[in-house]
TrEMBL record:
Subcellular location, record wording: Cytoplasm
Protein name per the record: Urease accessory protein UreE
Cross-referenced InterPro entries: UreE (IPR012406), UreE_C_dom (IPR007864), UreE_N (IPR004029), UreE_N_sf (IPR036118)
Pfam family, one: UreE_C
Protein family: Belongs to the UreE family.
Domain UreE urease accessory N-terminal: 6-71
Annotated gene: ureE
Entries under SUPFAM superfamilies matching the protein: Urease metallochaperone UreE, C-terminal domain, Urease metallochaperone UreE, N-terminal domain
Length: 156
């Protein structure tokens, strides 16, 4: 079965207990894929190809299989670094450093989150930055900071 439209996120379905739910575990970077093949916890195979490419997948995306059944995506927890900048200046410095390292991040609630990376961890330790390493199921895929289009390619 090919699924082409997200019904809702499970947290937005008030009568969730009236559905039979099949779950599929995906990696956070799978949320970025335009075509996804998955096998549910009921051993059913599905293809996901969203009709509207502007619509994205996220942790909890639910697909209506029929009037009684849902397929729900659950993101496998990733090991992440969560940085808590001291102030807006520190936020800018950390974002600049991560941008130079070409690391995709999520910025929310005054914190910067990125997938675990030993080089970043050592850099943060050297700077005495406030950070923690933890396991977390990401709600949406990490994004590259692209505040302005720039390139490291040099033209002759």
């Amino acid at each position: 079965m090919i699924l082409t439209k997200v019904y809702k996120n499970v947290k937005d379905i008030p009568d969730l207990d009236s559905y039979h739910i099949e779950r599929v575990m995906v990696k956070s970077d799978d949320l970025l894929k335009s075509i996804l093949r998955v096998t549910s916890d009921h051993h059913h195979d599905y293809g996901i190809r969203l009709e509207d490419e502007r619509e994205g997948l996220e942790n909890g995306s639910a697909f209506l299989l029929d009037e009684h059944d849902l397929l729900v995506l659950e993101v496998i927890p990733d090991e992440v670094i969560v940085i808590t900048p001291k102030d807006i200046d520190d936020m800018g410095k950390k974002a600049h450093m991560l941008g130079n390292l070409h690391k995709p991040v999520t910025i929310a609630h005054g914190k910067i989150t990125l997938l675990y990376d030993e080089v970043v961890k050592k850099t943060l330790e050297k700077e005495g930055a406030d950070y923690v390493v933890e396991k977390m199921a990401l709600d949406s895929p990490m994004q590259y900071l692209n505040l302005s289009a720039h390139s490291h390619h040099h033209h002759d």
